[in-house]
Amino acid sequence: MSPFRPALFVLFLPIWCAFLHATPPSDLTWRLTAAPDTNNPGSRARLEWPSHTRFDLSAPTWSLRFNFPLAFQPLAPETGLLLHHVNGDVWEIAPLKTFKPGKSFALELAFEAAALNFSLGPNGAYFRPAAEQPVTPLTVSHTTPPASLLSRGPVDTMPAADASDRFQRNQKADGEAEVDVAGVFPTPKQQTLGAGFVNLGANTVIVYHPDFAAEARFLQNTLQQRFQHRASLKEGQTAKAGHILLRRLEKNTADSPRKREEGYQLRIAKGQPIEAAAHAPAGVFYALQSLLTLVPPAAYGGKADTLRLPEISVDDEPRFAYRGFHLDVARHFHGPESVRRTLDVMALYKLNRFHFHLTDDEGWRLAIKDYPELTNYGATRGTGPDDLLPSFGSGARDNDAGSGAYDRETFVSLLRYAAERHIEVIPEIDLPGHARAAIQAIEKRAQKGGDSATKPFEQVTNLRDPEDQSEYKSVQGWKDNVICVCRPDSYRFIESVITDLEAMYREAGLTLKVVHAGGDEVPKGAWLDSPACKTFMAKHGFTESKHLFAFFFEQLHAALTKRGVTLAGWEEIALLEDHGADDPNREFNPKLKQPPARTHVWNDIPGFGREALAYQLANNGFEVVLSSAAHLYFDLAYEKDYLEPGYYWAGYTDTFKVFRFSPHNVYAGGAFDRMGRPIDPAFYTRHERLSEAGSKRVIGIQGQLWSETVPNRERLEYMMLPKLFGLAERAWSPKPAWEMLPTSPGREQALFRDWRRFAHRLGQVELPRLDRLNGGYAYRLPPPGAVLRDGLVHANTAFPGLTIRYSTDGGAPTEQSPVYTKPFRATQSVRLAVFDQRGRGSRITTVTVPQEAEQKGAPTP
């Protein structure tokens, strides 16, 4: 979902460790040498192979392959080497007849755009002596470039992150007065804290209305798993002090659908039972999640005889019905345990839609009964003839992240696990682009002659027109990733997949309500030279390929509607005509409005021309989920630092940027564009505003975590947390007072007041809770900010409450290093890091002390 999402990929752990620890010598080294400038929009780097004596380069057919996210320029002829784009993000270096092998070589490479962190570098390298011969994996190390090379050219005004830059940013959470962090999280609609506390014993009784039996069992299991409490269950309507009562409110007393479906009351008072009351099961479930956020973090993960809870009265309901989180498991596979951990943290913070991105060019991750090749072949990346190309660093290693799939039993269990937490799983089958894994798997099926145990082989033989000579390249670099929308096979295939999805939901005791069908980034040129499509267009009177795209989604919308299933897709599914400019003449497909298709609008990046699209779609009758790339793409790097993983094509996104997102006033939601330049409020004066009816069609917001740079659970949790807290606050909590204010100093002051409390809550309560929940989450610890003023080192953190430790001996701070509590005098350079309660440390921030201060010999603390 980006004009620059392509071949962007992650560097795996051995490469990441090369930045932090001593490692054996690498086979290849990568060093940036030039950034884009006024005269050249591209970058240059030096790729060195210091020694290849263990390989015979005198053979005429050897090759060196690796993944790289951007397009290279051809090599100079005098190198004697050919640099060739294979497909996707796979590149190959091979010898020409003029190549003269030596013991090493170094290549000066020129490529498009800028590579500002290690996620945009070569990875997954391997050497093949000759065709059909075994390959050897190679390691790649990076040289951290100077800050001057971390630039996208003259328009890039964003500074590289350093100690001073972080200190300035962290000051948004600073202040003299104490911050009250007590109460429920995310911020409820209304809460009143009492003066005292109530102790919940280890053998409490959960008394429940029969409508809430499942929620009572969930609470019983949660108390046992998280605190080793042995609560008992009792159906009924009255409870004693010290017990927990799940009480049903009459539905006719709710004054809004959201209150009726998900609203709740929570009462904790001395001498009374703890009471969670709601109109519906979802509401009482969220009351229990609020109760769990009142439990002190120190009680999680251990045995607590009692849980000390504050006296409190809460009346709450969500702002949005749709509170979503999207996880891509196609680019890198994440197993069921990682998904369950994600669902747990979603549930605790009241997110209720899990958008499961199951298929893409680089992998198909769900077993489908009629097409076993989808996972037998389409879920495996590698270098063999029965593998998909090794994208995103999969290389020649046995890499679980590149390969893997959910069998039916596992998927059904995940559906049930989510449903127990009142989370709806929305499967995404990405079509008609982003479909290479499916295309390749069905072609593999045809080569084998089909599977006699399934439906007749003749039903689906190919998802492409075999005679198609169309030339195109997707933004990810694929040349063959679009299914043919003119072949009956494609529609039969989709029908089979949807039918099997419905069966798996039924097996889980659920109903498939929504299918997300992708629809994004179909490259220009697809279908143009397909004989089947030329015949099809003539038959239907179509004159342009865009009519084929519209027809495809009209057919899919109609087919799903007959099944009682809602069609969802990225914003592109609704567009008939779009010239990239924000004007009221943009055309939408009227056939997708009855009933309304659900559009996930992602491209709101200032200057890209679709800033108003979400509001235009809502005003024109479509359901809209705000999925802002500029604010809600969690795969974007937190800051501009070469060692910070993630992309930055839409800018950098930290937790504060998610927190300040303004769903009903998106034009005031960002102060700077992706290059760090201030956004002139006048820029948005011509942009369409939400109508009253359109406002009701903005059904919610969603955070996206694409996984090109996310190869394991640790990285998943690092990129997801703590950004997810900002998402939960904006999705559940009432509209803040500052949201609808125009951009102004007053708006910023009000925003920072709310942020200060939020940041303190994270540092003092929620992040320490994550240290213990489910054995601990690998959330990102922000490097501290620090400055030297009058010889004193001042330090701060983005989330006050986290511990800063420092060293003055040149070594890295450890758990035993001194704790920073106040400014101190330093006579030599200081290294600082933020630590959590488990002893994990952040990346190190360094404050350099000028030489003259070092010579004074002033005492250090």
Automatic annotation (TrEMBL):
Residues 766-843 form the Chitobiase C-terminal domain. The keyword Signal applies. Residues 320-734 form the Glycoside hydrolase family 20 catalytic domain. Keywords: Glycosidase, Hydrolase, Signal. CDD domains: E_set_Chitobiase_C. It catalyses: Hydrolysis of terminal non-reducing N-acetyl-D-hexosamine residues in N-acetyl-beta-D-hexosaminides. Pfam families: CHB_HEX_C, Glyco_hydro_20, Glyco_hydro_20b. Residues 183-316 form the Beta-hexosaminidase bacterial type N-terminal domain. The active site is at E521. Residues 1-22 form the signal peptide. InterPro entries: Beta_hexosaminidase_sua/sub, CHB_C_dom, GH, Glyco_hydro_20_cat, Hex-like_dom2, HEX_bac_N, Ig-like_fold, Ig_E-set. One of its GO terms (molecular function) is beta-N-acetylhexosaminidase activity. Its EC number is 3.2.1.52. One of its GO terms (cellular component) is membrane. One of its GO terms (biological process) is carbohydrate metabolic process. PANTHER family: BETA-HEXOSAMINIDASE (PTHR22600), BETA-N-ACETYLHEXOSAMINIDASE (PTHR22600:SF57). Belongs to the glycosyl hydrolase 20 family. This is beta-N-acetylhexosaminidase. It comes from Acanthopleuribacter pedis.
